[in-house]
Design a protein that fits this description.
heterodimer; A: 365 residues; alpha/beta; abc type-2 transporter like fold; four-stranded mixed β-sheet; two-stranded antiparallel sheet; 14 helices; 6 strands; elongated; B: 315 residues; six-stranded mixed β-sheet; four-stranded antiparallel β-sheet; 11 helices; 37% helix; binds adenosine-5'-diphosphate; binds magnesium ion
């Protein structure tokens, strides 16, 4: 009974403080929105209508056909024709164009002999998206007018390191739920507790009869709610902006998310017992966040990683959650078919929480 | 007073931080219902001692009991009975005065019906009624201190630890604050208060003087004055600076402290006729001054005991 009073006291206090902390409040809503839009749109590489110019020094039937093909692709906006490659360079330096297409005098011969690449693309390489577009262009086939056969221009191999599975936003959004929850849940709890150490509140708290689990529960519960709010934001916006459907059951989605949120909050608590300043807590959060984002299968396909990376990944809650949430949202899978992932998350939560409670001491030494 | 029960006792209480000995074999015996002072400069180990007595720091050596409870083994049970006002304001600055007190009343799990009346009573008692809706962070120094004391006493503890409670408070508030402490002591609360103000220490029933973690003296202010091994001669001179210079040449005078036009000269009791010596010295230096033997105040006591300790260490 006294325990409940004390837990409720901490809960109330946390909510009051949260409602007055505009920065944290902004982060709760801002981080999911920002990341969703950032990842959602950046991953969408179908960039169209970049400004471009061309210099057709060959000016043959074939070269004109080639230019027309590029224009028709609508990938770039082939606005201007200039005389020489130097003109292209000037425009590029002036920032007037992002891509220049240079067709040399001996274009026809190069096409036929196929010894050298026939066309040069001048690209503003500082922008990876533009670079990506250029690579798209190199894959364009060239048509010979006489026959309708397609002869591919010798093209470089296009490897996209950031989205190797050519995932669209539909795949990214469920993964983002986990990424955002990992970042915010771990950080918010770790920082929330360390802040009280820094401000001296902790010395007052530990001198009261409150018990460690009571304090921890009271601190965690508000963040569970925040986690759920973020879940709704990401999936809601994901549905709105990127038409990501939720095929599986909502209650299973909620179950998986709750366990995952719990695991991350427990981790945040554990980190808070290790850090003495908010800055340290942040650093530790990133120490967890980076491997999570890189190894969990969010960025790179899990199967393509070396075994050691896979072992590490299995220790991260995000890896298991990614499988769960992708299964539920995208495949409409039943959670019972993935019980081992849920179990892994539960185990992580219990172990971490136990460690956190054991490590948290109602003493200053 | 000595017939009363002992509220706080410690033997050989020691705390090290790495190679630094912050508190060095401190013995304490504090009767219930006393206001007991810890007097010492910054870094002398006052806070560390208080934290050990509250059970927040584990002693490196020695033991302490508070209300008969061991501060290490029974620290959790102890928490219901002690109040601790930290040196730094530790309440939540982003909560209002009422919210802070309400939180404390719930954390101590006061019965539901008693919580609000108790908070109201404290607001009244500590003159915080006008500030109930104000965030604690925006209170003045004196208001913060009253709020902190209200929070520390909310659960009516038998023992109160106050760590430099008046450091951010103006003189009027300090006086009111001490009146509060005397009221509480009269009702039977034992109060351990640390300070580096001599005038505050002088108000305590008993006090311990701490220097570099060592308890160099303890007793009532009067006992301390009687027991120091020095006579205090007060010199009032037109040219106190010249007087000080002339006296400082004589090794018989242990220390000379200038307070405006007055000098306080400590002379070891082993030196016979201290007053005569001082007068002679001044006459020889042709300095016009009045000299008188006075009762040692706490400043003198503090000088004397720390001086003795330094000499003891040098040998
Ligand atoms: N947590 C700690 N870690 C290391 N040194 C400490 C710690 N707390 C106090 N000290 C050191 O112990 C000594 C006594 O400190 P403290 O008890 O705070 O003195 P006071 O309260 O009298 O100013 C100081 O030298 C201080 O630097
Ligand atoms: Mg201190």
């Amino acid at each position: 009974m006294k325990s409940i009073i004390r837990i409720m006291a901490v809960l109330r206090k946390e909510f009051l403080q949260l409602s007055r902390d505009r920065l944290t409040f902004g982060m709760i809503v801002g981080i999911p929105l920002m990341q969703l839009l950032m990842f959602g749109y950046a991953i969408d590489t179908d960039v169209r209508n970049l400004t471009a110019a061309y210099a057709d020094e060959a000016d043959t039937h074939l070269s004109r056909q080639f230019i027309a093909d590029i224009a028709a692709s609508q990938v770039i906006n082939l606005g201007r024709r200039v005389e020489t490659v130097q003109d292209l360079n000037r425009l590029m330096d002036a920032g007037a164009i992002s891509i220049g297409v240079y067709v040399p005098e001996d274009f026809d011969r190069r096409i036929i002999e196929r010894d050298r690449s026939a066309v040069q693309l001048l690209v503003d390489g500082t922008d990876p998206i533009i670079l990506g577009v250029a690579q798209q262009l190199t894959a364009l086939p060239i048509r010979f007018d006489s026959q309708t056969a397609l002869v591919p221009v010798p093209s470089m191999e296009v490897r996209n390191y950031y989205n190797p599975e050519r995932r669209s936003a539909v795949n990214i959004v469920p993964g983002l739920v986990g990424v955002i929850l990992t970042m915010t849940m771990v950080m918010f709890t770790a920082v929330a507790i360390v802040r009280e150490k820094e401000r001296g509140n902790m010395e007052l708290l530990i001198n009261t009869p409150i018990k460690t689990p009571e304090l921890m529960l009271g601190k965690i519960i508000p963040y569970v709610l925040i986690g759920l709010i973020q879940l709704v934001i990401v999936l809601g916006m994901g549905g709105y902006f990127f038409k990501v459907p939720i095929l599986g059951s909502y209650s299973q989605l909620l179950t998986a998310s709750l366990v995952f949120i719990g695991a991350n909050l427990a981790l945040g608590l554990l980190l808070s017992t290790l850090a003495t300043t908010q800055f340290q807590a942040m650093q530790m959060t990133f120490f967890v966040f980076l491997p999570s984002i890189l190894l969990s299968g969010f960025m790179f396909p899990f199967d393509g990683m070396p075994p050691i990376a896979q072992y590490i990944a299995e220790l991260l809650p995000l890896t298991h959650f990614n499988r769960l949430i992708r299964g539920i949202i995208l495949r409409g899978a039943d959670i019972s078919s993935m019980w081992d992932e849920l179990l892994a998350l539960l185990a992580f939560m219990v172990i971490t929480l136990t460690l956190a409670i054991a490590r948290f001491s109602k003493r200053l030494d | 007073m000595n017939s009363r029960a002992i509220a706080i006792s410690a033997t050989g209480l020691t705390r090290k931080f790495g190679s630094l000995i912050a508190v060095n074999e401190v013995d304490l015996e504090i009767p219930a219902g006393t206001i007991y002072g810890f007097l010492g400069p910054n870094g002398s180990g006052k806070s560390t001692t208080i934290r050990m007595l509250c059970g927040l720091l584990t002693p490196s050596a020695g033991t302490a009991t508070v209300m008969g409870m061991d501060t290490v083994k029974e620290s959790e049970a102890l928490k219901q009975h002690i109040g601790y006002m930290t040196q730094r304001f530790a309440l939540f600055e982003d909560l209002t005065v009422r919210e802070n007190l309400r939180f404390i009343s719930e954390v101590y799990a006061l019965p539901r019906a008693k919580r609000r009346p108790r908070v109201d009573q404290l607001l009244e008692e500590f003159s915080l009624v006008a500030q109930v809706k104000q965030r604690a962070g925006t209170l003045s120094g004196g208001q913060k201190q009253r709020l902190a004391l209200a929070a520390a006493t909310l659960h009516e503890p038998k023992i109160l630890f106050l760590d430099e409670p008046t450091s951010a408070v103006d003189p009027q508030n300090r006086r009111d604050f001490w009146e509060k402490l005397f009221e509480m002591a009269e009702r039977g609360t034992t109060i351990l208060v640390s300070t580096h103000y001599m005038d505050e220490a002088a108000r305590c029933h008993r006090l311990a003087i701490l220097d570099q973690g060592v308890k160099v003296a303890d007793g009532s202010p009067k006992e301390l004055g009687e027991n120091i091994g020095y006579n205090v001669i007060e010199v009032v001179a037109d040219n106190p600076n010249g007087a000080r210079l002339s006296l400082s040449d004589n090794p018989a005078f242990t220390s000379i402290t200038q307070l405006g036009v007055r000098l306080r000269v400590l002379v070891s009791k082993r030196v016979p006729d201290a007053l005569g010596q001082v007068k002679l010295n001044l006459r020889e230096a042709q300095i016009r001054a009045e000299a008188d033997q006075v009762f040692p105040d706490l400043e003198d006591i503090f000088m004397a005991v720390t001086e003795e300790r330094r000499k003891g260490l040098a040998i």
